[in-house]
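Researcher: Please translate sequence to structure tokens.
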Amino acid sequence: MAGHDENFKDESGLLAVVLGLVVLVSMSALPATIGWVQYFA
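Model: Translation complete:
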């Protein structure tokens, strides 16, 4: 069996929060992005 490391920090929670914020901001900015693409195209 693997040994228990007392100094191990689980960063998956922080990664999930950061990923959630990125998705939230990108979804709210999506209509503006589509508008800019249609304007310049």
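Researcher: Any highlights?
Model: The chain has a mean pLDDT of 85.
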